[in-house]
Each structure stands twice: as C-alpha cells, then as structure tokens.
Amino acid sequence: MEKKSIRIGQAVTDYYFGGGLKQLATVTDKRHTVVLTDENLYGIYEKQLKGWKTIVLPPGEAHKQQSTVDGVMNQLIGAEADRKSTLVGLGGGVITDLAGYIGATYLRGIRVGFIPGSLLAMVDASIGGKNGVDVGVYKNLVGTIRQPSFLLFDAALLQSLPENEWQNGFAEIIKHACIKDAAMFRELEATDIAGYRKNKKALAALLRRNALLKTKVVQKDETEQGDRKLLNFGHTLAHALENLFQLSHGEAVAIGMAYASEISASELGFRQAERVKRVIAQYGLPTKLSFDPDPVFDILKHDKKRERDSLHYILLERIGKGVVHTLPLTTVKKIIEQIS
Amino acid sequence: MEKKSIRIGQAVTDYYFGGGLKQLATVTDKRHTVVLTDENLYGIYEKQLKGWKTIVLPPGEAHKQQSTVDGVMNQLIGAEADRKSTLVGLGGGVITDLAGYIGATYLRGIRVGFIPGSLLAMVDASIGGKNGVDVGVYKNLVGTIRQPSFLLFDAALLQSLPENEWQNGFAEIIKHACIKDAAMFRELEATDIAGYRKNKKALAALLRRNALLKTKVVQKDETEQGDRKLLNFGHTLAHALENLFQLSHGEAVAIGMAYASEISASELGFRQAERVKRVIAQYGLPTKLSFDPDPVFDILKHDKKRERDSLHYILLERIGKGVVHTLPLTTVKKIIEQIS
C-alpha cells in the first residue's frame, strides 16, 4: 500500500493507494472509529466490517438530507463517539458527502476518513472536501468545505459495480482529461470500460492519476475562486438537464461536455469537438439530447455560478486545457438552440 | 466608530467599536443582507430594522436546535440569499450561535456578521467563532468553528437588559480578569454594575477590553489545544450545575469560579480566593451552593474535557494568571465535598 500525504489549505490528507478495506485497521483505531455506510455496501462487505462499529443507511440520493444527518448524530451519541473518534465514510458520493458533513459538525469537527465505494467517488466525489446535503430540489445547499484526514482507495470495491456506475465515473475521468491532461485523453481513446475492467494495473494507475489530478486542482484553489471552477466543465448544463430529465449524473455530464465542446468551437475556435464526442461515446455515454431550451434556461438563470446575465462557462482551448469563460446567457442559448 | 481588523487563523474579522445598529448599512450592503434576530430584540429595534430583510425567531435556548436551523435555511432560500449574501446575527448567544452555524453551512458558507445583543454576547459568546446547536441535553453538540467577518458593538443595546443579564455578562468579565488581567480585576473591585451602568465611557472601554482579551486568547489557539482552555475557568463545574439546578449561566459560572479558586488554594497555594469571591458577590453573583456531589460527579465523568479518570481543570496561580491543571476526578470530588 502506497501512502502519500498531501496538504490542502491548513489540512493534511493521507492518500492510501493500492490497499484494501482490510487495511483500515492500520489507518484508524478500531475502538475509536465508526463506519458510516449504506445497505448495499454493507451487504457485500459485512464480513470485513465485523468488529467495527457501523451505522448503515438506506442507499440513494433521496437520503442525502438533514433528517438523515440528525439520525446519524443521535447514533454517534449512542455509540459514545467523542473528540478522539474517527468517522469513516464507506460508499459512493452520497455517503462521503454525508460523512464529511457530519464529521465536520459533530462536536464541532472530528476526524474523518473516506473509503470511496464507487468509481465516481474514487476519482471525484471523495476528493476536495466539499460535503453536504440537499434541501428540497437544491443539491448540496447545506454543507461545508473540509478535507478528510485520510482516503483509502480499494479498487476491489469496483468489481461489484453495475455498468452504469462505471459510465458515471468515466464521465468525470473524461472531464479531467479534457481540462487538464491531454496524455490521459489519448490513453482513454486507446481503450474502453471493458479494457480497464480487465486490466487491473491500468485501472489502479488511472484511479491514482485522477485522484491526484483533482487533488492538485483543489490544492491550488480550495474555495473555488479560480482553477477549481474548471472542474465544472460539462456540469453547468448537466445540472439543469438532471433536474428536468431522468438522466444519470454521468449521462448529463457527458451531454454537457459535448455541448460545451461545441460552444468552445464556436467561441474559441476549438477544433476537436468531434474527438471529445467520440471518446464520450466510446465509454457508453450520450453526446446529444433533444430538449426544449426554455425550461433548461429558466434553471440556468438560477445557477449558482451566474452573475447577472452572464454565466461562468467552462470551455476548452484545446484538449487538456480548460478555461473559464464569461458568456452571456443569450449566447449560450443561441448555440444550444442551433445544436438541438 | 473605531474599526479594528484582526486575523484569526485564515480569517480576518473587522471589529467596530463605539458604533450603533444604525451604522450597519455602512458595514454591509442592505440589498444582500438578511438579519437573524429574536422577537425580543425585534420588538425593541423594529424601527431601526425597517428596510432590512429579517428572520425573527422566538427567544430562548430551547430554540437553539436543528429544527430551527432547518426553518431558517428555508427562509434564506425564500429570500433568495446567494453566495454574495451576508447573514447578520443580532441578539444574544443563542442568536449568534445559530447565525454562525447557519452562515457556515448555507451554500457551504456565506459572509456572517454579529451584532451581539447582550453583555454576555458582547464580551464572550459572539467572539471566537464557535457556533452550533444543542441536541437533546447535549449543549453545542453540533456546530463548527468559523470566525465572523465583522462584529458590530452597540453599547446602547444594553440599556434594555434586565439586571440578571448584566450579572451573566459580568461573570465572564470576572473570569477574564482572573485568568489574564490583574489590572482589570482591580478596576472591577473598585466599582459595581450600577457604577458601569452610569458611566457609559467606562462601560464602553470595559466591553472593548474584554472583547479584545478573548480575541487574543482565541487568536493564539483557535482550536482549543492550549491557551483557549483557560476560558473554561469556572465552567467545568458550571456546566454540571446548570444541568442539575435552575441556575443562570452567570450564577453557575460564579459558583464554579469560587470553587475553582478554593481548589487553586488547596492544589497550588493560591492565596486570594477570598478576593475572587468578594468581587463575585459584588456583582450580585453567588459564591456557594449546597448540593449533593454524587449526581454532579456523574456529569463531570462525561465532560468533554475529561481524559480517562482525570479532568483538565482551570486553576489560578495568582489573580491574572490562569493555568491548565490535570486533576484526578477523586481529588476534585474530595475538595468539593469539603466545601459544600
């Protein structure tokens, strides 16, 4: 197991690569640790979790809300968790967001670690310290930014994931390649999901590369004043589409990236929109959606990244180089109308 | 109005002394500000709050809980508060604790300012960034440590306070004098509450002195690893007594300080316990309580500052010099049994 300690802001996070769930006991003291997980993961890893204090939640984004947090707080009190306790989130983005938020506020902050349980969580959601819960239709309306004390990556947890979970993860991996890493983009072009599933070594290297890529972006800009905004590539439109249509996050981001590539072509002379769309399709993700632009733009008007009548939109200058661009809402609308 | 900008950790807080509520508009943009207050203060200052967006809560510690937070979150959404908004807490410790916590988590943190509305809040509760809510019998179980962007001190807000609120505030002022400021202790010996109520200039200077004294302690030790612990002088026993008996916070702290002075005499040869008790009595506060030690020690056993069978207890070496002392619970119990 490789250990890498990385400072983000005032905090230091220990990254453990190439290890497994069974190494958790070497990273945190069993007697003073509570593991927060969901029924799905608990069902699969019950044996390995034997002897650990666990809090098991029903799975799904619907439970990412304050009432769940309140319930977990009471279970922590019941488990006599104190200032020396560690809360470990074992699961996908919902679990790591909840564990991060609960750990940031219980007793004004206890030690938190994550064992991301999905590809998306490994390469994206578990990294960067953003946590929180949804309030009604508003995603992550309440939360904090606080780095975990450790991240334990166990690639074996991916084996049980269904295909669409792999696609969700690869949407973010393609995003990372587009905004920051042309060499990784070429690697992605040369293979596909089945290829990575078969080649454990290549998969482990890909996980590590993406976790560290996102970490580096966050490290430079924890509070999203600059570079961290690039991670929103494909996401501005995706959030609106996810709100309106039955799409997975990966599908929505994929469509958002495809459209952002087209807007990059029209606004910045970006010439490789076709390559971006080809790689998106190669990982089983959509590049197009027919929709009525009006309701989508009603939502974009309320986007958190909006300033008056303009949006901070992430575009590509070239593959591997994302840029923040301020675009009038009317321009975005015109281009999207032309595409759809 | 005097402005003083003070860095604590990564944050800078602007302190405004000698101003008033009506200067709020010079400190924050009215259009992008929401004022959180309680019915008592709103009743008194309704006129001055005209034109400000306000959220008004019922008064009292009973409302310092998550369900209140949830309600305020929804009101902030309704008021279209966004990342550029400021939340101002106008009130005593309950309001500043709620406003600090809500502001730390709404949209993962918006700008927060406090206008402390009680003497206790001015010299203590509003300073240092600790915020939160109670969970059942557990005080401040959930919260964060996050510094406000500004503190606006309006001594005129004190005029409407009842006598027991003045006593609550002076308990913390006496505490500050005991642990850090022998000169202020002598000033306190030379006057009383009636004296400060009459002498506005001396009162304003006392407020400023105490706000800056606490700030300096917090500045050195935001997360309570060392010096900040001194602020618990009188508070370990006080928390237990408050739980069991109908005492105000000031009364409980006063008794706690008197007993801690006796323990200081017995453990450290502190010779001025009588002077401490005299000044406590001079400000209308009790120095003694008859109680059965057993239930009190059951609570002390669960104190957050406990480590195994010892307590971090704050004692006095001399007036103006508090020290952290590790005492076996049995020793504390024996001394308190002798006194009571």
Short structural summary:
The structure is a homodimer of 340-residue chains. Chain A is of the alpha/beta class and 340 residues long. Helix content of chain A is 46%, strand content 20%.
Oligomer: homodimer
Q: Could you list the spans of chain A in which at least 5 consecutive residues all have pLDDT below 50?
A: none
CATH class of the largest domain in chain A: Alpha Beta
How many strands, what sense, and barrel or not for the largest sheet of chain A?
Answer: 7 strands, mixed
Q: So what's the overall shape of chain A? A: globular
- The strand order across the widest sheet of chain A is 1-2-9-6-5-3-4
What fraction of the residues of chain A are assigned to beta strands by DSSP?
Answer: 15-25%
Classification by helices and strands of chain A: alpha/beta
Number of domains of chain A: 2
| CATH architecture annotation of the largest domain in chain A | 3-Layer(aba) Sandwich
Rg over alpha carbons of chain A: 20 Å
Distance between the termini of chain A: 48 Å
Query: Helix segment count of chain A?
Result: 14
CATH topological fold name of the largest domain in chain A: Rossmann fold
The count of strands of chain A amounts to 12
User: Largest contact between protein chains?
Assistant: A-B, 27 and 27 residues
Mean pLDDT of chain A: 94
Topology of chain A as a string of helices (H) and strands (E): EEHEHEHEHEHEEEHHHHHHHHEEEH
The helix fraction of chain A, in percent, is 40-55%
GO molecular function (chains A, B): 3-dehydroquinate synthase activity; metal ion binding; nucleotide binding
EC number (chains A, B): 4.2.3.4
InterPro entries (chains A, B): Dehydroquinate_synthase (IPR050071), DHQ_synth_AroB (IPR016037), DHQ_synth_fam (IPR030963), DHQS/DOIS_N (IPR030960), DHQS_C (IPR056179)
Function (chains A, B): Catalyzes the conversion of 3-deoxy-D-arabino-heptulosonate 7-phosphate (DAHP) to dehydroquinate (DHQ).
